[in-house]
Amino acid sequence: MLFALHSLAGKRSAEAPEKIVVSASRIANLGDGFARTWRRPPSEQELQVLIEDYVRDEVFYREGRAAGLDRDDVIIRRRVRQKMEFLAEDMSAPEPSDEQLAAYLASNPERFRVEDQITFHQVFLSATRRANTMESDSKQVGSVLARDDGALDATALGDPFLLGEEFRGVSPSKLTSIFGEDFSRRIAAMETGRWQGPISSGFGQHFVFIGERISGGAPLLDVVRPAVRREWANAQRLEAERKLYASLRERYEIVVEAPSAKAASAEISR
Amino acid sequence: MKNLLRGFVLVFAALLTASLAAPAFAAEQVVTTDIGTLDQEIAGKAFPAKPPYSPYADRNFPTRPLFGDTHTHTSFSMDAGAFGARLGPKDAYRFAKGEEVVASSGQRAKLSRPLDFLVVTDHSDGMGFFPQLMSADPVLMATPQGRKWYDEINSGKGAQAAVDIITSFGRGELPKGFPTPGTPAYRSAWRETIKAAEEANDPGRFTAFIGYEWTSNAAGNNLHRNVIWRDNGAKASLVEPFTTLPPLGSPNPRDLWKWMAMCEEKTGAEILALAHNGNLSNGRMFPIIESFNSKRIDREYAENRTRWEPLYEATQIKGDGETHPFLSPNDEFANFERWDKGNLDLTEVKKPEMLEFEYVRSALKNGLKMEAELGVNPYKFGLVGSTDAHTGLAAVEEDNFFGKTSSSEPSPDRAMHPFVKTDKAVIMGWETTASGYAAVWAAENTREAIFDAMKRRETYATTGPRMVVRFFGGWDFEAADANNRMPARVGYTKGVPMGGDLKDAPGGKSPSFLVAALKDPIGANLDRIQVIKGWVGKDGQTQERIYDVAVSGGRKIDADGRSRTSVGSTVDVANATWTNTIGAGEMITVWKDPDFDPALRAFYYVRVIEIPTPRWTAYDAKYFGIKMPAEVTMTTTERAYTSPIWYTP
Questions:
Q1: How many CA atoms lie within 13 A of B141 on its CB side?
Q2: Chain B residues with CB inside 8 Å of A42's CB?
Q3: Contacts of B146 (CB under 8 A, 6+ apart)
Q4: Do B5 and A30 touch (CB under 8 A)?
Q5: Do B113 and A46 touch (CB under 8 A)?
Q6: Could you tell me which residues come within 8 angstroms of residue A262 by beta carbon, excluding any fewer than 6 positions away?
Q7: Dihedral angle computed from the Cα positions of residues B161, B162, B164 and B170, in that order, rounded to the nearest 10 degrees
Q8: What digits encode the pLDDT tens for the residues A115-133?
Q9: Which of B163, B166, B590, B610 to probe by mutation at the A interface, max A CB count within 10 Å?
Q10: Single pTM value for the model
């Protein structure tokens, strides 16, 4: 490859030199680029360095292209493809109307559902601390809690839990991330206003007292507009990219030759 | 045209948010920057006699860790695009929020649980190759073609407009004012990055930070840093990222710090940087002798490094960076996900003498020594883990690992495909590590609260699981505190959290620590909690020592502070399963340094070790029905590393 480049350089130098014009607007561009990084215009000397670097870029770029170095380069191909896809994306998203967003929300209700909010406190029995007595301890605590008339300082019955004993306005998905999915499912089915449990988790056993549950449900558009807008735009973007590709692909007749090994085995199997 | 409108809306919305939210943020700052003091004051004034009935009423300290990734690349990164990444920043944020996406390899991908935050950090160099052909140019709008395209786009015929534009572009028939790709491209890529974060950011539920990676890679030696904004797009869009290529950029971190200072001064933003992969820097990540000028680190370097780089990414897909068996021969957990064959591009092989300047533990130790000499500790950093995924997918759970690049997304041959190969060495695909995440103790899920927690280093690294780790240091912790009903409250009241400082040892007292961990609710049990101490001896030499402070299964801790009995293993490699029949779900203890000398500088950090579990290679083997060669590691012991607490005489 080096040899090829040298011979190329030799050949081209014999011809009339090509012109590289660094226009005033290009220089302004270079200066702008500097200013956007450093928030000040370049000094005279810095600008000279930028121009020199630009010329260097241009010389290598032109010579490289002339030598065909851009062909069959997977990185260049992918960049060009990305530029095209990016263009499609940019074409895809005018500001949606309220009607469009409302329709999108109506057809994807689960996606934007507002989660329940659960407030509860717990009595925790640690599997680590009560390795051998868990069963009897759990029974005992359960029977004490069943008689709780509200005057009991129930939390003193259990063990400390690193994340605390009271949880306020927590959604099922947060509960899943704190206690695991099982816990989250069990508590979702429990009544408010009395001690229930125990629920087992990876940490031990939990008796819970749900003080309040605020039911979620389908939200109004105004409440979830940014999320609906984002998901709507994402759907539009994928659709635009698909359409662009489909319309460009129409311009081609695609011929795919079977790889020779497969072709041979296809022959055999036939 | 449309982007002009978008731009206006964006800036306007950002300004609006900023002005509305300013008072709340100001209050938040006071609370979160000095939690311990404020908590005590409030308690003292409002409840002089006894605490409120509800022990949670006055609670303003962080109660749950937030998990995220400070380091995800997308197709906007040159190299990611070259490896076939198709997902951009928007997709990366959607995935982190728990949405299902189609990965670049065409497979459906979803996290087991959403993350709480994400920073998309595409490489600053070359970000501009991704041009936005449409610019905010009013001249274009005045042309018939420009007008026509605008109308087509707004009536949902975007694809038609795109084809028309591409065709016109090819024929050289573009309207006057149409920007040709060049410098404006860079600005537009950065603007797209900012826009994706602004759209995904959802205060209280999910934080999308604005950021980028400054990828200094002189001679193949990794000095990479990620830069993160506390602020919104209005401020971030006032500058463009700092690059590493001269003449505009520089590979020298000192120049990055200059740029950061300029950025804060001229735009009013707050930013921080965190480095990663010292293991691929060949002795240059935590230098004593600076590689750029061959001189000893001076006070100016130390001051700037500690000012701008409060955190370090200790574990990620390209290996774990806590310590190395050569540096820590007495540490039986040190031989973990090692990448020690050479520098980033394997153009230079590793020499043992380089290791000291590459790993967290040795850097923390050298930092103490340098502080004695310079008056400033250049390596006083907290710890996080992150992915460095180049797929747009922050997916590093062992059973849900989407690899380093789009070409290493799940497939039968990814493990045995070389990741880097030169004439000097080879790193195989199976050597990539399904790691890690950043855990942050922030009081709420907002850019401001998480950023401030990062600045005060109240963070820890995990290799993927979401275990909860607490670590407080003080002078008055006693055994009973481990049984307190509110461990966090007693921790903040009596001590400082991870990332904090202890000074002025009261006469005759040794520092004591409240240490606790809770397993990942869907993960493996814990084997043990360790405190790692580093210090500078009277002879000026650095030292390190490991203490087992809590061990599961009733094992004994010997008089020397170690428990040498292994927890065992339940891993069934062939079926890629394990059981939680060994280990513990939670552990808490108070530990006092038995070897404290008040005259010597020291640091303490916590390492939590899980019981052995199947490594991602075991899940691959099981799923694809393949047999891995004997040299492939098939089990792992996941872990967490907290930020240190420093003692300064």
A1: 10
A2: none
A3: B1, B140, B175, B177, B178
A4: no
A5: no
A6: none
A7: 160
A8: 899 999 999 999 988 888 9
A9: B163
A10: 0.83
| Cross-strand partners of B472 | B497, B514
What are the pLDDT digits (tens) for B245-260? 888 889 999 999 999 9
Cβ contact A162–B267 (<8 Å): no
Give, as one character, the DSSP assignment of residue B151: H
Q: How far apart are CA A244 and CA A251, in angstroms?
A: 12
- Give the chain B residue nearest A130 (alpha carbons): B584
Q: Which residues of A touch B248 (CB under 8 A)?
A: 33-34, 37, 50
What b/e readout covers A203-226, taking b as 16+ CB neighbours within 10 angstroms? bbbbbbbbeebeeeeebeeeebbe
Mention every residue, 6+ apart, whose C-beta is less than 8 A from residue A132: none
Give the pLDDT mean for A25-52: 89
Nearest to B159 among A91, A93, A163 (CB): A91
Burial of B112 (0-12, 13-18, 19+ CB in 10 A): middle
> In this structure, which amino acid lies at residue B488?
A
The count of CB pairs under 8 A between chains A and B is 187
Contacts of A114 in chain B (CB under 8 A): none
Å between B23 CA and nearest CA of chain A: 23
More confident residue, B473 or B405: B473
> Do residue B154 and residue A94 have CB atoms under 8 angstroms apart?
yes
Q: Cα separation of A202 and A176, whole Å?
A: 12
Give the pLDDT confidence of B347-377 residue by residue, as tens digits. 899 999 999 999 999 999 999 999 999 999 9
Question: A190-245 pLDDT, tens per residue?
Answer: 999 889 989 999 899 999 999 999 988 888 999 889 889 988 888 888 888 888 88
Characterize the bridge pairing of strands B225-229 and B271-276: antiparallel
Of these ranges, A133-147, B59-73, B541-555, the one predicted with the greatest mean pLDDT is B541-555
> Which tens digits make up the pLDDT trace of B429-484?
999 999 999 999 999 999 999 999 999 999 999 999 999 999 999 999 999 999 88
Considering only CA atoms, which of A26, A31, A53, A55 is closest in space to residue A42? A31
Please tell me which of the candidates A176, A178, A244 has its beta carbon nearest to residue B159. Answer: A244
pLDDT in tens, B585-596: 999 999 999 999
CA–CA separation, B439 vs A48, rounded Å? 47
Looking at the partner chain, which of B63, B133, B580 has a beta carbon nearest the beta carbon of A202? B580
Q: Give the residue from chain A lying closest to B75, CA to CA.
A: A82
Cα dihedral sign for B582, B583, B584, B589? positive
CA-to-CA distance for B606 and B470, rounded, in angstroms?
Answer: 9
> Cβ(B503)–Cβ(B598) under 8 Å?
no
ipTM: 0.76
Out of A38, A94, A166, whose CB is closest to B2? A94
- Chain A residues whose beta carbon lies within 8 Å of the beta carbon of residue B249: 37
Asked whether A269 and A109 are in contact (CB, 8 A), the reply is no
CB nearest A164 (choices: B98, B486, B525): B486
Q: Is B199 helix (H, G, I), strand (E, B) or coil?
A: helix
Interface test with B, best of A120, A175, A177 (most B CBs within 10 A): A177
Query: How many Cβ atoms from other residues are within 10 Å of residue B307's Cβ?
Result: 15
Q: Give the CA distances from residue B437 to residues A138, B206, B466, B501, B520, in Å, rounded to whole numbers and listed in that order.
A: 36, 15, 8, 24, 13
Retrieve residue A270's tokens: 């036939």
Query: Would strands B635-636 and B613-614 be described as parallel, antiparallel, or unpaired?
Result: antiparallel
Instruction: Inspect the interface and report whether the beta carbons of A30 and B131 lie closer than 8 Å.
Output: no
- Rounded to a whole number of angstroms, the distance from the CA of B323 to the nearest CA of chain A is 29
Which is nearest to B213 in space by CA: B274, B260, B257?
Answer: B274
Distance of alpha carbon B499 from alpha carbon B456, whole angstroms: 6
C-alpha B472/C-alpha B490 separation (Å) is: 9
